[in-house]
Amino acid sequence: MTNTPYPPEAPKDCALCPRLVEYRRAVAAKEPDWFNGAVPSFGDETAELLIIGLAPGVTGANRTGRPFTGDWAGDLLYATIDKFGFSKGKFAASPDDGLKLTGAMITNAVRCVPPENKPVGAEINACRPFLLSRIEALPKLKVMLCLGKISHDSTVRALGLKLKDHPFGHGTRYEVNAGGRDYLLVSSYHCSRYNTNTGRLTAEMFEDVFAMAREAIG
């Protein structure tokens, strides 16, 4: 883990990934009033908890411009965030709902919407410097909570750690040191509709991971 010249947030019109740019423009041609850009992180700049998702959903964050806002995954995520005391206000699936995160921030491993919600390896790699910069820009960060394997693996790599020593699993918990700072890295299955509908992830399982984060932060 080293300092990166990249800013914590990608420019809205980021052009690093040609396939994502093409897809973003195709969606914008059909839905010009949507956000249709690299979605910025949302939350508290003094966050002790950083929640790291996969990528914007086409009708969710790509539409609204706020992570996990406008799709089903956000309903579960924001309800759980509220339950563990990391937000104020009422989540109404809209960026103008007045919701504020307290002590937490949400970002994505890939900032632009990918076709079929599946970024390829080169796109994950290209976006990783933004993730690293986002981590380094949070002075009080203690816990990173990764949603899904892609998020977990990219975060491990961003921290300069080895995947073989930190394999993904639901409820995994690793105390790590990167860049001279100590962090707790916890991971969950992604809170997607598919995972919850199939029972791979239940609300109780999701809350168990948040409980780890809350306990570590205090």
Automatic annotation (TrEMBL):
<dbReference type="GO" id="GO:0033958">
    <property type="term" value="F:DNA-deoxyinosine glycosylase activity"/>
</dbReference>
<keyword id="KW-0004">4Fe-4S</keyword>
<protein>
    <recommendedName>
        <fullName>Type-5 uracil-DNA glycosylase</fullName>
    </recommendedName>
</protein>
<keyword id="KW-0378">Hydrolase</keyword>
<keyword id="KW-0227">DNA damage</keyword>
<dbReference type="GO" id="GO:0046872">
    <property type="term" value="F:metal ion binding"/>
</dbReference>
<dbReference type="Pfam" id="PF03167">
    <property type="entry name" value="UDG"/>
</dbReference>
<dbReference type="InterPro" id="IPR051536">
    <property type="entry name" value="UDG_Type-4/5"/>
</dbReference>
<dbReference type="GO" id="GO:0006284">
    <property type="term" value="P:base-excision repair"/>
</dbReference>
<keyword id="KW-0234">DNA repair</keyword>
<dbReference type="InterPro" id="IPR036895">
    <property type="entry name" value="Uracil-DNA_glycosylase-like_sf"/>
</dbReference>
<keyword id="KW-0411">Iron-sulfur</keyword>
<dbReference type="GO" id="GO:0004844">
    <property type="term" value="F:uracil DNA N-glycosylase activity"/>
</dbReference>
<dbReference type="InterPro" id="IPR005122">
    <property type="entry name" value="Uracil-DNA_glycosylase-like"/>
</dbReference>
<keyword id="KW-0408">Iron</keyword>
<dbReference type="GO" id="GO:0051539">
    <property type="term" value="F:4 iron, 4 sulfur cluster binding"/>
</dbReference>
<keyword id="KW-0479">Metal-binding</keyword>
<dbReference type="InterPro" id="IPR044147">
    <property type="entry name" value="UdgB-like"/>
</dbReference>
<comment type="similarity">
    <text>Belongs to the uracil-DNA glycosylase (UDG) superfamily. Type 5 (UDGb) family.</text>
</comment>
<feature type="domain" description="Uracil-DNA glycosylase-like">
    <location>
        <begin position="40"/>
        <end position="210"/>
    </location>
</feature>
